[in-house]
Protein 1
Amino acid sequence: MISYARQTQEEQPEAPPPVEEHIAPAPRVSVQAFCETVETAAAVQSAGEDRRLGKAHLKIQMGGMMAAIEAYRSAPTPNVIVLESDARSDLLTGLDQLATVCDAGTRVVVIGRINDVMLYRELVRRGVSDYVLAPVGAIDVVRSICNLFSAPEAKAVGRIIAVVGAKGGVGASTISHNVAWAIARDLAMDAVVADLDLAFGTAGLDYNQDPPQGIADAVFSPDRVDTAFVDRLLSKCTDHLSLLAAPATLDRVYDFGTDAFDAVFDTLRATMPCIVLDIPHQWSGWTKRALIGADDILIVAAPDLANLRNTKNLFDLLKAARPNDRPPLYCLNQVGIPKRPEIAATEFAKAIESQPVVSIPFEPQTFGAAANNGQMIAEISANHKSIEMFLQIAQRLTGRSETKKQKSSLLSPLIEKLRGK
Ligand SMILES: Nc1ncnc2c1ncn2[C@@H]1O[C@H](COP(=O)(O)OP(=O)(O)O)[C@@H](O)[C@H]1O
Ligand SMILES: [Mg+2]
């Protein structure tokens, strides 16, 4: 848990985390920070605005250790205290004093400038949960606080990938389903596709599933949502892939509140390593929230002007709302429709200031057959060129490379079992 010396002086404190690093959001906890410098206070402040601390209640004060001791003489302590402290002797005696006024269960994170193993040992002995070396960036504070509440083995658990089209009908659902399939098959990660287009979603059709229950049962009874309940709503598509299907019926309307899906997402996050959200092309409180709250985002665009404008707008909004995350990814789809004038990938890249992950060609025969047969592209045509592209998207989104299929040995089930313990 201690991230001592994790950060060297040369490192950019503001750099977003690498994609392999997954920081799970913190639960509803109270965090109080006592800073000594305005730089640290600013970093903690912007950490508080990060999506992963969206549920936490953060209060920032100046005054460092002395202010903390003073504050908790009379007030109850929060779940987490973040303390900035520069001097070694003051830090240790201060912590001893703080211990006398601290409630049991309060976790203490120290931000300091001294890079020294002896100090680190003394801090561990005093029960400090984490020591972060200053100067800190917002993401360092986010990481430190979130890691207090996620078990070390939970690292792979709960990555949410949101897929949305820059326009309707550009193939966002098709791509999300095929990418999820690649994540499950080629990366051997357990994945679930949540079809959020409740009225018209096609995930059930695409995977050839017609489950009696699905996401509507969860979203319309939020009080019942827990792991066991959501588990029963999943239908199994392949070994590693499940579906939380949309009802695709019109007997009710689907006007959701902004946080209608929070409970479902939180529950899926607790048990599923990879959650692919197939988000319909609409702009509402809950679709915006699903995008901003996701760990990674893929925007699917067709190569025309309206798609370019919409992709740019989505990028700008999402980058501003997620300053400590890497920018969204995007791909072009339905490229090369005969006789249709197109905007080139290079033009897109210039306007968006980012390259598309892939440009998927328009292939009506294969994609049409897959859609009408309820199959994935790889099932229709094992060597189709888009399959490699879906895998590339899967790898970029998850930060994982393909598993070596030959690697399993006689011992691997046993090893898996031991690891599970
Ligand atoms: N690369 C492609 N080539 C040909 N047809 C495609 C391609 N991608 C998607 N389609 C087709 O486009 C239609 C709309 O796709 P869909 O995934 O439902 O779009 P969205 O979710 O963005 O509204 C579907 O009929 C699908 O089969
Ligand atoms: Mg769709």
Protein 2
Amino acid sequence: MPTSSAEPPVLDVRSLAAGYTTPVVQDINLDLRPGQVVAVVGPNGAGKTTLLKAIAGVVRIFTGQVRLRGVDVTGAPLEHLARLGVGYVPQLDDVFDSLRVRENLEMGGYLLSRRERATRMEQVLEVFPPLRERLNRYVETLSGGERKMTAIARVLMLNPPVLLLDEPTASLSTELTAAVLREQVRALADLGHAVLLVEQKAMAALEVADWAAIMVSGRVVVSAAARQVLETPRMREIFLGASAEEELASGS
Ligand SMILES: Nc1ncnc2c1ncn2[C@@H]1O[C@H](COP(=O)(O)OP(=O)(O)O)[C@@H](O)[C@H]1O
Ligand SMILES: [Mg+2]
């Protein structure tokens, strides 16, 4: 789906400060439009997960706003956001290991009628064809990649216009990382979803992203077109530093 910056954001974050007993992320501003991947990258501990959790209503918000189609949903519980069309795939605990793939997908479609659920499962399996043969497998027997696919597929059951993905490639090899980001994450945006992608693998994420927000110590220090960051070695050096160089050296 073509995107244009004139299109209003489906999700926007304004001057957000959030965290635990004290704020961990501060002064966060983000716009997410349909068909876009916005990558939030930065070193371990930068506050990327906390930011997603703040949007998902699971950590404390100190100031600022989260809006969905212009409507204030700041601090709204995840259950409420799910009904409004936000799908959140956390970094951990994203799937039920002791259940079959099919059962995970059915649970993901809990708001649908039995009939809608069956139809939607077919559509989701078209997005993730390898899951079709694994529908009756227990998730604990799957590979890391298949498991993550199941986690994303579960959230896709409600066809959420907005997807929040926290390190979907965390357990994957360099080759699988590139494939998941290109063939799954980018593909979801191309289907019209708005994807907020948190990744520690910055270079790989920027390859599939439209926009990049680089976080350091709880703040967004660069907000720019992903291509611009990729094409400016100096920006990579300063803001992504050693992690980007390691990633490049490892061939990702
Ligand atoms: N439950 C928590 N309570 C207090 N501080 C936390 C908690 N979880 C994370 N933090 C702190 O928040 C900061 C950012 O962590 P996190 O959002 O997980 O970063 P990232 O996802 O970028 O690696 C870290 O300093 C971390 O120690
Ligand atoms: Mg994290």
